[in-house]
Amino acid sequence: MDSNANQPKPTLSSGLSLIEKAQELRWTLQLATAVLFADLVLVWRTGKGLAHWSIQADVLLANSGFVLVSILVFGILMSIVIPLAAEFFRSVGWWLLTSIPWPSWMQTDRDYSRPVGGVSPSELRDYAYKNDDRFLLDIVAAHKDKEKKSISENLAAGQIVFGVLALGLANYFPSVLGIHAVTLLREVPATFNSVGELAIAVAFLLALLAIKTTWFSIDALDWIEYPPLYGEIESARRERLGIR
After folding, report:
1. DSSP string spanning 56-116?
2. How many CB atoms lie within 10 A of CB 142?
3. Quick one: which of 50, 159, 188, 209 could link to 196 by a disulfide (CB 3.0–4.6 Å)?
4. What is the pLDDT of residues 89-135, one digit of tens each?
């Protein structure tokens, strides 16, 4: 009998990882950005948004030049304008957070306590150099790469949310851009009344929370679990404090 016959076979749902789900969310947000931009362009061009526009081949062919220019503008917007604007607002946000004397109940203090068995990357790196341990140096390097990747992913996620938020605000307040017509987000409260307004308000608050989480959160200190070095550091600390 085949020993693998009774083993459960992997399914599509069990194969989805957190990274794949995050990728799905990222593409969903990027699609939302494209939809909001397309709606603004259509309202500006024709006076009607996506909610009142039907796709017709002859219309697309007649306006193929305009469509190509719109795609090019969207590419420039998402690859240059939005990232630069996002970095500017992120820098201003950090400046405000560090310059304004916020009340103590609004401040978040970083936890500097050392966990049991934990050492800092710099401590482990110095220990590895001292003992000429290549394996420990590889651990430190991998840990640093993981940390840099996490920071990069958070910045990129914040930029995507910022892009959706910026285009969402422009879509909800089109008069700021000189557009005086009903846009997609204006259709929501007009169709669903107070429920639509509540949904937009909740989406706006969630976007702000996502930006706060990805850009303005104070992370805990980075520790690597390595008990041998932790024991040496603790012994030295106890000896320095006269603790037996």
Report:
1. -HHHHHHTHHHHHHHHHHHHHIIIIIHHHHHHHHHHHHHHHHHHS---GGG------PPPT
2. 11
3. 188
4. 999 998 988 888 877 766 666 667 788 888 889 899 999 998 888 99
| 28 is a domain residue | yes
pLDDT digits (tens, 9 = 90+) for 167-207: 999 999 999 888 888 899 998 988 888 899 999 999 999 99
Global pTM reads: 0.78
Which of 13-22, 109-118, 227-236 is modeled with the greatest confidence? 227-236
Give the number of C-alpha atoms closer than 13 A to the C-alpha of residue 79, restricted to the C-beta side.
6
Structural domain for 179, as ranges: 14-241
Q: Phi-psi bin for 81: left (phi > 0), alpha (psi -120 to 50), beta?
A: alpha
What the block records as the tokens of 108 is 């978040």
Average pLDDT estimate for 129-153: 90
Does a structural domain hold residue 168? yes
Look at residues 23, 28, 24, 38 and name the one whose alpha carbon lies nearest to residue 77. Answer: 38
User: Looking at the domain assignment, is residue 171 inside a domain?
Assistant: yes
